[in-house]
UniProtKB/TrEMBL annotation:
Gene Ontology biological-process annotations: carotenoid biosynthetic process
Residues annotated as transmembrane: none
Catalytic activity as recorded in UniProt: 2 a plastoquinone + 15-cis-phytoene = 9,9',15-tri-cis-zeta-carotene + 2 a plastoquinol
Subunit-level organization: Homotetramer.
Keyword Plastid belongs to the record: yes
Names of required cofactors: FAD
Designated name of the protein: Phytoene dehydrogenase
Protein's cellular compartments: Plastid, Chloroplast; Plastid, Chromoplast; Membrane
Family: Belongs to the carotenoid/retinoid oxidoreductase family.
Lineage, opening ranks: Eukaryota, Viridiplantae, Streptophyta, Embryophyta, Tracheophyta
Gene Ontology MF term list: phytoene dehydrogenase activity
Length: 562
């Protein structure tokens, strides 16, 4: 799910913009932008205050995930790399892109005894989970990232790195704003005493604010085929949009409007009339089958340092390398069409025994060699296109009270999900000022707009969510500063009938592989999907060890002849 992870740190043909009133952080053409506006304000004195505002943050114990089928399956795949026979001559594998897919590929190849060399175009790790620190020492991120209990490969990765304590688990609830009752929220609370799927059913039945009983019954009947048919049924629904599937199953449109607009935007940043129903059913399947599947956690700080660096340290401890500021300019080919080397922007070339591109699909399509374009495996990629998204961070001059220590579904036409990161995240914690991080989606019509236009639109929506605390004219809470990160091409757009176009990690070109959440794996566009794709890519390379050794010997023979 892209809640988790949602937006790409790489974009296409984007020029940096400037704000006359404040300082600007601009990125090179072809990268995401993080723009900031600072508004000077006079800090209010705490002297004479009757009593200071007391903010209480409560993290919950890590749920018991280790006994689920999916967790054990993920753990077994991880263990297979550590227990693999040590190669007589480790493969030198060149990997382009240090997002979670590239980091995962490198980590598990290193576990198997090989030598990955990971190349990142920019000076920051993470790809879709990248983040930057501003001049005040405050972090702003590419997306609002949520770690679900139903992410078995991600949860295994945290355990393998010894950083389980960096996840801040929240209460097992889903909280939705009520547009018809500004400032109010409706909750779906999953009781800990009940197993799945009873805890989810109870949560739905106990909520009487969003759906009527007849609507709940019709929705439950509509879901029966998915619950009984399992994964084969889920995959067969790829051809239908959420809206079309709901109508086909006799589910009232109001169910889509009340619940699934918010869920669709959270999963893939688009509305239910565009999103493939397969995406929704995969999420519901995990949430209903696993007791803690829908339980959420926040990372306790910025992703590059708190998640990506432990992976880098692990890779380097086993002899691998991670190189920043190493942008791939061209994939150079041998006469037989296999990869000869990666040519970098600085003019250097780098050769290996195998090659992986772990960038977003739109970036890879720009690198795709002309000789490969008519090969069916690569030609299908034309159908996969990244979805635009905007991540907004706003710092206020006071603590907002109408919020939770949790992810919130805004149910706004312009906003997807949001959170007060000054409460939910330890590193960003501030008892005196709120920092709201919001996902602005769908963003297609807004991606070219100015930052001031986006902030104005965001403030109008926030005035509805915080009617007693935020107004568009800032006569209530004042905006201290903001950062906006635009990503014109994020995770691939999960529209109907795109599943057949997703490639396997092993390409038809010997020695060349792909990793990324758009490649074939069962968790679609998400952090979990990215990590799993990296594991599957590494598995393919390990399985191809003898073939790759043979290819390497042929290269040596050719070189000696020339």
């Amino acid at each position: 799910m892209s809640l988790c992870g949602s937006v790409s740190a790489l974009s296409l043909n984007l020029q940096s913009s400037k704000i006359s009133m404040g300082s600007v952080l601009a990125f090179r053409s072809g990268e995401s932008m993080g723009n900031t506006l600072r508004i000077p304000f006079k800090k209010r004195s705490s002297k004479g205050a009757a009593c200071p505002l007391q903010v209480v943050c409560i993290d919950y114990p890590r749920p018991e995930l280790e006994n689920t089928v999916n967790f054990l399956e993920a753990a077994s795949l991880s263990a297979s790399f550590r227990s693999a026979s040590r190669p007589t001559k480790p493969l030198k594998v060149i990997i382009g892109g240090a997002g979670l897919a590239g980091l995962s590929t490198a980590k598990y190849l290193a576990d198997a005894g090989h030598k990955p060399i990971l190349l990142e175009a920019r000076d920051v790790l993470g790809g879709k989970v990248a983040a930057w620190k501003d001049d005040d020492g405050d972090w702003y991120e590419t997306g609002l990232h949520i770690f679900f209990g139903a992410y078995p490969n991600v949860q295994n990765l945290f355990g393998e790195l010894g950083i389980n304590d960096r996840l801040q688990w929240k209460e097992h609830s889903m909280i939705f704003a009520m547009p018809n009752k500004p400032g109010e929220f409706s909750r779906f609370d999953f009781p800990e005493v009940l197993p799945a799927p009873l805890n989810g059913i109870w949560a739905i039945l106990k909520n009487n604010e969003m759906l009527t009983w007849p609507e709940k019954v019709k929705f439950a009947i509509g879901l029966l085929p998915a619950m009984l048919g399992g994964q084969p049924y889920v995959e067969a629904q790829d051809g239908l949009s959420v809206k079309d599937w709901m109508r086909k199953q006799g589910v009232p449109d109001r169910v889509t409007e009340e619940v699934f607009i918010a869920m669709s935007k959270a999963l893939n940043f688009i509305n239910p009339d565009e999103l493939s129903m397969q995406c929704i059913l995969i999420a519901l399947n995990r949430f209903l089958q696993e007791k803690h599947g829908s339980k959420m956690a926040f990372l306790d700080g910025n992703p590059p340092e708190r998640l990506c660096m432990p992976i880098v340290n692990h890779i380097e401890s086993l002899g691998g390398e991670v190189r920043l500021n190493s942008r791939i300019k061209k994939i150079e080919l041998n006469e037989d069409g296999t990869v000869k080397s990666f040519l970098l922007n600085n003019g250097n070339t780098i050769e290996g025994d195998a090659y992986v591109v772990a960038t977003p699909v739109d970036i890879f399509k720009l690198l795709l060699p002309e000789d490969w374009r008519e090969i069916s495996y690569f030609k299908k990629l034309e159908k996969l296109v990244g979805v635009p998204v905007i991540n907004v961070h706003i710092w206020f001059d006071r603590k907002l009270k109408n919020s939770y220590d949790h992810l919130l579904f805004s149910r706004s036409p312009l906003l997807s999900v949001y959170a007060d990161m000054s409460v939910t995240c330890k590193e960003y914690y501030n008892p005196n000022q709120s920092m709201l991080e919001l996902v602005f989606a769908p963003a297609e019509e807004w991606i070219a707009c100015s930052d001031s236009e986006i902030i104005d639109a965001t403030m109008k929506e926030l005035a509805k969510l915080f009617p007693d605390e935020i107004s568009t004219d800032q006569s209530k809470a004042k905006v201290v500063k903001y950062h906006i990160v635009k990503t014109p091409r994020s995770v691939y757009k999960t529209v109907p009938n795109c599943e057949p176009y997703r490639p396997l990690q092993r390409s038809p070109i010997q020695g060349f592989y792909l990793a990324g959440d758009y490649t074939k794996q069962k968790y679609l566009a998400s952090m979990e999907g990215a990590v799993l794709s990296g594991k599957l890519c590494a598995q393919s390379i390990v399985q191809d060890y003898e073939l790759l050794r043979t290819l390497g010997q042929r290269k040596l023979t050719r070189a000696s002849i020339h």
